Queue: 3 jobs
Job 1
Amino acid sequence: MSEELRTENARLAARVAELEAQLEAKPAIDRVSLFRMTNNAPWGVIALNGEGGVDYANPAFQRWLTKPAPAIGERQADALAPALFTILEACLPAALAGQAHEAELRLRDASGETRDVRLHVVPRGGGKVPISGAIVSLYDITETQALDRSVRENEARLSHINTVAPTANYIFDFEAGVPAWVAGRTERVYGYSADELLAGGGDLIRSLIHPDDFAKVGQRLAQLTAAPDGDVREFELRVRHRDGGYRWVLDRAVAFERNAQGRVVKTLSAALDIDERKRAEERRTLLINELNHRVKNTLASVQSIARQTLRSARTPDEMADVFTGRLIALASAHDVLTRENWEGAGLTKIVEVALAPFDERRIARSGPDVRLDARAALALGMALHELATNASKYGALSNETGAVRLAWRVREDDALPTLELEWRESGGPPVVAPKRRGFGSRLLTQGVRSELNGAATLDFAPDGLVCRITASLEPTPLLELSQAPSPAS
């Protein structure tokens, strides 16, 4: 053995001797005090001897006894609940050999009720005192275990709720200025994960709120302070996502914790992304405004058609036929636009619908499918119907040999593309220019000028009427709110 090792052993031996001397110098706990302490313990304590008997059981152990406490002198097999006796019978030999035992079990007590317990078995004696049995401490942890299970179940439920609910849920600590807990659909609502929001703290949260909506947070906090617990306060705000764009969010909150003065210092909130709903509301408002505009325009068109038809020198039956035909043409154009949400229509479809009531085999058509806005589509549909009606009554379609050639093209050499359309009749009766201009002529010339921002000419050539229409093609905006700028723009 080295000199260093011998020196260390000597030092340790001296320290042990010193501690033993200190312990022997202390007064021993008197038996009365020890009994009182054990007798009043809230957990069960029982002293078992090595001969299979009970030396003492405190009142708290009564649940596990078939004999009244303290059961002194009773046999263990007779005094202990069977389930407990089976466990202790297996543990006692080890305790008599100087080994301690500890376990958590579920056992039936003396009445047959199942309880959760923590069991400690230690040798009775040791050192200079021979081991004569075992001391058993029994802690009833049924309520604690039930509470733990309840907590775990609630945590599982909350986790499932956070998984299936469309909201981001959080607790915000206004005294610390940070989120205390975050869960749920945070990526969907805020564009950041729960861990990122917690790590970013109050600075990140505040940076996400649109400056115009920031005051709502303080206003809501004051409302919650004044309201009774359980009252929900909500507001809508815009939240900036990682890409810099803002989305609308509905934030609903209740008071979660108050300070001694009653002021709310923590709130529990559920935040829902309502951006699509807000966009839909905006779209609905635009559609309603557009509908109002279209209804007014339609009524004005009907009023004009009725007034001009009644001014013509026709019999009542003739006026009814003309008026009905023009209304049908207007309605047909409306049908085309309605199918396309009044966002415009293709010229090919407008031509097809306008000429459907007539002998289409005698009307040759050619030209590209040009997109027209709603106003232009209505005007051109009415114009084509008027040309076809006149051709059927007085022109190329009024006999068996006449024909019509309808052609159009788009000229791209101007700042805006220009539509050039020509209606050319041939093979009909000789054409004579009318002595006065009727509604049809005014519809073609004035209507094209006002509704199409273009021009229309009528050439009453002897071999057939020729109508030429030119109009600038304005861009046709689609009513798509998803393409609209963000509210913060």
Note: The mean pLDDT is 83.
Job 2
Amino acid sequence: MHISSLDILHFRNLALASLEFSSGFNVFYGANAQGKSNLLEAIYTLAFLKGFRADKLSDLIAFDTPKAQLSAVVHNGASTIRLGLELDTKLRRPYIDGSPCTRARDYLGILRAILFVPMDVAFLQAPPMQRRTSLDRMVFNLRPAYLIDLEQYQKLQKQKSAALRADTPDASLLDIYDEQLIPIGCRLIEARYQYLKLIAPHIRQVFAAIFDQDMACLPVYKNANMHDEIVLGNGCEPPLEQIIDAYRHAMANARQRELARQQMVEGPHRDDWSIALNGRPAKLYASQGQQRAMSLAIKMAEIACLKTEADIEPIFLLDDISSELDPVRHKRLFEYLNNLTAQTFLTTTSREHVHIDSVARMFSVDNGCIQHVS
């Protein structure tokens, strides 16, 4: 999968750009606050219909302009698709080959992208909801149909929570919600658990190859209904049926607590995940440098997992990674990237920080102006 061209109009500080890319490495260099990250966000927004920094659609639109437009030609195997997106302050309008797309689920998954930004180094210290969202995105990248269950679960969760806040909650209505929630919740738990099992060997391998071959770096699933955290990839995982049974049992015995708190107290919306380093919680025992390395290893492991499990190579978006690694790990990282076949977009403050043998296109970014220089 790769993008051959990208057209931008009034997206953040990128007033107008028409760019052609290599299917390999594309490097964007320039001083801070010139628009490098905005270029990555434009690609990310085309993939996911939302930015990775913006809270509102208006944040993605250039000042004093009514709307922004993005368009890209995406190649995936033998197929070629033009994706388009128009943004105003209230609406986003996606297009596929020039035709309006009325359902997001029909659009999402056409362009698959994996993003690493400096804020990702705080992954282990972030709130559980942020990690849970990142896991959902990872599962979706592998299995786009996952989005249907996730959206339906969130809709039912909102409806049941409203019913619990009623002056006199209707027990029969709550039973109906539970009958609908439980099978969907089981599928979400299964999808998350199976995904973490799939990506576990890739996280371990990437971390060892780039950062520390003597440390076992593995994902940890924190299911809200299991007493113990589950380390994946060490051969000691409990069977999925045990986790599902724990969820069903918790739901069957949650009603009184739900009524007391006026909210749902059990279910996959309370799940979390993390990383273990040699069997210990990385959040507590890993150094800051190791935590940065883990965050990046997870992203590259996601690429490897997609290629192995679905024969898909997503687009890799790397924002200013040179600022997050010491010189030794920086060198090992680029040795690894040299063997990466996924299309990669990388930003840096200096082209001297880039040690790629096969950089096909280099761009300078200055005050929102992007120019191809080699």
Note: The chain has a mean pLDDT of 90.
Job 3
Amino acid sequence: MDQKERAEALLRMGESYISGDKGAPKDYAAAIKVWKEAAELGNVDAQYNLGVCYNNGTGVKADNAEAARWWIKAARQGDVTAIFNIALFYQQGIGVKQDYTESLKWMQLAAKQDDPDAIYQIGMYYENGWGVTADINEAYRQYHLAAEKGHPKAQTTIGIELYNKGEYNQAVEWLEKSAEQGFADAQYYMARCYHNGHGVEQNYEEEAAYYQKAARQGHTDALYNMGYCHMNGVGVEENVELAAQCFKKAAQNGDAEAQYITAILCESGIGCEADIDEATHWYTQAAEQGHAAAQEWIAQKK
């Protein structure tokens, strides 16, 4: 058995330790031990796996510097996920000193392998001037490339750009693609399109349906608007209890207007039990964010 074959055998052995194959108990420490041997023999998958273990603290104490060390080894052998991960590490200063130029170098290598996440990230480098001269046109060219490869965030970015320009038909094309992949921001904007009849025929039921999808993912603005829909029977049956729940979730996410509305509902007992203490809490939260009406309520109570 040559070194390559031995490394492959050690890799599979480590995988069996992780999966608990054939009823054996999972043994992360044993997996890491054999993966280290395989990695030292040059096995790229073992190197990548060790990076994951050190990054996540799986079977070892979390150590970002050690994760970076193993991912750099895997990246140098062309592993695209390792390349992307080490690019993010340099971008954010995780396990290595922050270095946008070095980060961009790795990100471009990942992009050359048609990684949509990397292509989208390069757009961010150009938009923000990370390691390059800021160039919004180049940023959006990269976003378009990523969007065409199915990247949901890139599709949403392009869709919102077109929406803000009033190019609603094209905006809907991109937003719908992203929304179908479950991206909450795109679902939120699709709801706005149906509310206003922008690029689609106005349809309040579709509006509410898209707000609901985004709200289920905790999207703050969608939660707020879903509260409005339930409160006023827009696209759904009127239901003040559900409205109160949506407003409260948006309030918990930090939305000042939702906090103010939740305070009113708690104070008056609409959609929930009247609770002046909770009402005061939400008035205070909204006031601290500069909500004028909430500040006025607080002032009157002093």
Note: The CA atoms of residues 152 and 183 lie 6 Å apart.
